[in-house]
């Protein structure tokens, strides 16, 4: 089937809105960038879109941020490239450079200029069910088959996609976006919160005691607090607190399939990459990064700006600013030294039973 | 936004029902506990709720179970604390102790006394679709947009939340609770089964053979059996058997984002923590614990009461009662000795190319 | 409850269609197998179904593929067993053998003969919502509460189960099956694609840049391309590309709870087992296997036919045909040698502080 699909098409009109075209001047202003290499170019030329280096054409804007892709710069046919000062000499002739200190940030803004997110279409779909005493801002968009419980509040310009279920009493701020099939209960949500499809927020945590006839459920009586600007990836799960709250600090971003246990607290601007899990009552400071598939046991503290490596197994507190990896977690340097030492030892050690080393 | 949110509010009236108030005598009876430190206290005093040690007030009940939090006992303002005999001397003046052998179990019961789960509201929502020959007990609650297939049976006092999809022929017992957006097919379910939001039960397992032109699907002809009292966390997945059944034994509890492959069998009262995965045809005995992010390959046996540590990679049978961790799995003691030995060796070993050790 | 459940019932009539009965000749033809041990058997005998070795009766067909289960062959009461030449001598008297080079493939076909998948029932359920300019083939089946966006195309004999949400512009080929609660956006899908319940396809990837006031979202302007015959397990997530596309090659099979990041490319007939994750922009060749819970960092290349072991942490390119395991990834042989060497060293090393070794 896919022989005819051009898999490098950026911003396919079937799926994305398109704005523009825009002039070099406008793009430089949006990027906060300095123009180089525009000598002799047509000052009235307009640019129509964005694309990666390998497929961008003369009317498109591209970018270079990861030096791994620097070799692509020589052959690019892009009209404009956003890039750092260090790579300016490698620009091919005829390609204009927009020099900026943070090319990826500039790309975010220029790409958003060409492809603004779809506008919120105010109104409540006739198939949606809204509970008593719910207050839905008149500028909010509520999709088909949505179920909103009693006493819920939904702020201005918030968009709730089809099949979302919001439990009684939940508070949702302004400019939020809740993806299809998400469910949210027992939650207080700030502004600009984004939940992708299938997230589960506020269900009871994993709490039970051993009774004489098996496990007995411990009532989970806390809430979830999602502060302003939090984003949660598809099919991730955040349990409500048991007696305190589960709190995700302002600006934090969680990827897909992440698990957050009851009473966990994340500070501001934490990053939790896909399939990582944080067990109950663990607390993270601000700007902590937890890489993919890492796991943190419960009841520990992770200091500000600590970085937890991929697949790391964290069993005890981590200091602010520390870089750890491995299972059990240890400093990056120690982990890779251990790996190297073991490799050397294994090479030196004759096999049991003799034979080749 | 969240400056004004009191994140220690337990049992927020927007989200939880509240019962009571209750007397000390009633609470002691509920907890099965012995009263200490009530000399001079008002026998008619009533208590209104539960809260953690750090936020409980004089009219609230708290508990101490994890000794990590024992330092909080000195400063608590709680009226009553459920705790073990060992900590009774640390109770502050004016706080009554309820001494019990299992404070966490007592907490489960007292918290449930103050905050009973919402009652089941009998009836089938008018937007729900119920297939031919389905038998729904008149005391069951079927939520909006639920789809129930042909020939399904739903027992007394069972609650099925909005957007749940139940496939043809599924049998659901009494006092079950099925969370929003869950899907269940090819399944026989006992009583008191709880499925949280977004679980996937009974879909076809990962079975295919290599044919001349690619993979060919192997029909998955077994079922899922969820015995009495099983609980499954949000977004977890349990595949139906291929030719036998996938069986989750009575009282077992699975956390969020857990994967159970086809033909897996869990005994009674097993615990599988979040993001753990059990591959096809593996069998667990009774009271087995599988910690977070652990993985078990297929076709192995895990003995009764074995404990599989977090992130453990189990490649072969595990004896009853064994404690294993690491990838590949080994006894706890061996694992931590290996970690210590490697650390010491790495410290002693000069770096390649010389320089500091 | 479950005392009376026969957990070895294969193809329970409540859940599966049944075809047949079939003659030995017909079954041999379907399996592409050679008949042995039918001397003296009734040529008109008919067989009614399939079952595993331990529960199959004289009118049923079973199979042996994994030599782990060879001891079951002696006691089987199966009428027919599909198996390889090597085990023919172990067939019990009265059991007919169907000798074939690939018994598991033959089993797939014979099981499918007795239990064909349910037929597609053409039509759009009256509760489904279909957007403007959507083109739904008249032979397609659209279930209850499905939401199909504007401009979507759905091919012949495709079945879309209840509560599925398809975003604007999505293209779905023929003979596809989309499980309940799945959501698909920004996607081009070939023929014979199967998505199980709860999959999330096409949502925005995890892309953001660090701005002066926190993270800023990078518009995700690519698509997802699912080529012919792709299958995706329950609750798995595939993010759309950021500027290029995320591509899953023809015939590839992904298990449950798998994460595929933006711009990832899988070649033909790759296998990704449950809870594995592949980070952004990583490329896999053809016939690559990624075992359960393995994780691949972004921006690397995995060669054709490479095999990534369970829980493996892959931080750099992997050659075609390589077998790697461990975190960080290393060749299988090296990994298990390291494990053995460390175990021996640990046994030899006296504990710090003296005492027993």
TrEMBL record, chains A, B, C:
Subunit structure: Homotrimer.
A GO CC term attached to the entry: membrane
Active site annotation, chain numbering: 262 (proton acceptor)
Biological function: Catalyzes the N-acylation of UDP-3-O-acylglucosamine using 3-hydroxyacyl-ACP as the acyl donor. Is involved in the biosynthesis of lipid A, a phosphorylated glycolipid that anchors the lipopolysaccharide to the outer membrane of the cell.
Natural source organism: Gluconacetobacter sacchari
Encoding gene per record: lpxD
Gene Ontology terms, MF aspect: N-acyltransferase activity; UDP-3-O-[(3R)-3-hydroxyacyl]-glucosamine N-acyltransferase activity
Name used for this protein in its record: UDP-3-O-acylglucosamine N-acyltransferase
Record-linked Pfam families: Hexapep_2, LpxD
């Amino acid at each position: 089937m896919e022989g005819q699909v051009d898999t490098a098409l950026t911003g396919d009109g079937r799926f994305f809105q398109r704005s523009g075209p825009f002039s070099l001047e406008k793009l430089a202003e949006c990027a906060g960038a300095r123009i180089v290499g525009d000598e002799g170019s047509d000052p009235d030329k307009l640019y129509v879109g964005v694309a990666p280096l390998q497929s961008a054409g003369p009317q498109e804007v591209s970018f270079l941020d990861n030096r791994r892709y620097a070799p692509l710069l020589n052959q690019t046919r892009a009209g404009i490239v956003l890039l750092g000062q260090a790579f300016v000499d490698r620009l091919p002739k005829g390609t204009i450079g927009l020099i900026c200190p943070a090319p990826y940030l500039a790309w975010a803004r220029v790409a958003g200029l060409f492809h603004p997110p779809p506008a919120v279409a105010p109104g409540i779909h006739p198939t949606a069910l809204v509970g008593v005493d719910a207050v839905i801002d008149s500028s909010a968009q509520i999709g088909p088959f949505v179920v909103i419980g009693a006493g819920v509040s939904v702020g201005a310009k918030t968009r709730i996609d089809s099949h979302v279920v919001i439990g009684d009493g939940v508070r949702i701020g302004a400019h939020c976006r809740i993806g299809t099939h998400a469910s949210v209960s027992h939650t207080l949500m700030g502004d600009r919160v984004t939940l992708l499809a299938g997230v589960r927020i506020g269900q009871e945590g994993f709490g039970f005691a051993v009774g004489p006839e098996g496990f007995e459920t411990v009532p989970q009586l806390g809430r979830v607090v999602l502060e302003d600007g939090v984003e949660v990836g598809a099919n991730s799960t955040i349990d409500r607190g048991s007696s305190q709250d589960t709190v995700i600090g302002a600006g934090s971003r969680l990827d897909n399939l992440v698990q957050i246990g009851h009473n966990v607290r994340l500070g501001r601007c934490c990053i939790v990459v896909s399939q990582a899990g944080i067990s109950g009552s663990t607390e993270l400071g601000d700007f902590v990064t937890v890489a993919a598939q890492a796991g943190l046991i419960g009841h520990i503290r992770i200091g500000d700006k600590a970085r937890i490596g991929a697949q790391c197994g964290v069993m005890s507190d981590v200091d602010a600013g520390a870089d750890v990896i491995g299972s059990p977690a240890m400093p990056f340097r120690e982990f890779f030294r251990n790996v190297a030492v073991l490799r050397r030892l294994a090479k030196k050690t004759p096999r049991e039973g003799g034979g080749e080393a």
